[in-house]
Amino acid sequence: MGFWNTTSTTLGNDVTYVNNTYKDANGNNKLTTITSTNTSGYKDVVEGSTQRIGDKPPGLKGLSYAVQNDGKITYKYDDGQGNIKQYNSIQEFSNSSIVGYDANTTKKIKDGMQKNLNAGVESYNKANPTSKIGPATGSNPTGDSTGAKPLTKVEDLKAAVGGSQKSRKNFPTTLRYPLNLDTSKQDKIKFDMVEYRPAEFTSDTKQFGFNRASDRPITKTIGSVFLPIPSGISDTTGCNWGGDPGATADKIALANVAMGTITEGGGGATKAIENVLGAVGSDSGGVKTALATQIAGDASGIGGGLLTRLTGAVLNPNLELLFNSPTLRTFSFTFKMSARSEEEAKQIIGILRFFKQGMAPRKSDSNLFLLSPHTFKITYTHKNQKDPHKFLNRFKECALLNLTTNYTPEGQYATFYDGPMVSYEMQMQFQELEPVFNEDYGPGTGSGGPDTEIGF
């Protein structure tokens, strides 16, 4: 994720945070555009939404930005036809092939943002003369006049691990097979490579643990491959359930006493014990004897076998199937690629290298750590649509676990005159970084809504 220094002259194309550590007493970024009167925070990138951005008529209109409470810059585009979409970076917006976007548009967006954010700094400094925002300094900039804050333990750890300056982070974005695959008219599967994003402790006071992979800041796409949708595609969704036989009467009684003690103290424990004794006392004696036998067996190490030896019975285990955990979905794809021209052969070689190098782990500059490989976003799309195919499954971010390349899928060694193999077969196995949850499907709104789509 990029950090943007308000004194710099350019704004990064990737996901950007404006001075992410500039927080006020309420934990909000000091330059946030979200206010009590502008709860969405979105403001025109170029003042007046009717002004053009770019030189190609009719130009680009309706682009706005917001600085979120955590400092992240997001963008919103309104095409004036009732279609509104949100983007997490300039790169993501430019990849959307918006009508009117040209070579100068990115620069004009950056210039507009530069002006807007510098005005935000000036406005904040005037309103808070004793707490200036200045140039960012250090590896964890605060911009406050008091200098940089000490690094937190997590930041210390990340700084110690460092990055990898030598690993490849830019791949081709237009690789395709076959070479004449028309991405605007044909159904296709798209593989976008992105940099892996490590977890962070959640900042939501109502949640625990780490933020989910899908909630982490989106990194820019560093390469793309377009392929025809293969045959035999499927998905398997599952959960781990298991039988729990451990809820015998004696254990239920002990659990009841423990729960009473934890929630209500000594009084709760006393009440729970009285309930157990009451249940035992109402019996003619069989329950007392059985429980006594069970306890004696536990004490002697024989366990429940003593009760079975003496009576031929076992305590009712109250067997019940209980949910244990979600599972991570895996997806397998097989593509056979046969070149029909020299240019198509180059595309095939580039596709194989794209996946081979992208899935490989990276070394830190110190050579002390290994860094996670790049990950992939997979999307089925229907003809010229940009959104995921409504009638096929969607994917969460995936890791490429295995890649098998068959250099002789025809059963014999054969090359073209200049060396490339006649055919290549590529078998890939992906696994999602996180499980699919009920909430990922949305609430469902009936006709015309998510209930008419497959979803995940």
What would you say this structure looks like, in words?
- There is one protein chain.
- Strands 3-4-5-6 form a 4-stranded antiparallel beta sheet.
- The protein contains 7 helices and 17 strands.
- The protein folds into 3 domains: 1-150, no CATH class; 162-237 and 328-456, no CATH class; 241-324, no CATH class.
- The longest helix is centred in the middle third of the chain and has 33 residues, at 249-281.
- Helix content is 24%, strand content 20%.
- The chain has 456 residues and is an alpha+beta fold.
- Helix 4 runs antiparallel to helix 5 (286-300).
SSE blueprint:
Elements: E1 2-4, E2 16-18, E3 43-44, E4 63-67, E5 73-78, E6 84-87, H1 90-94, H2 105-127, H3 153-161, E7 175-176, E8 188-194, E9 221-227, E10 239-244, H4 249-281, H5 286-300, H6 305-311, E11 320-326, E12 330-338, H7 342-358, E13 362-363, E14 370-371, E15 375-381, E16 398-406, E17 423-432
Helix pairs in contact: 4-5
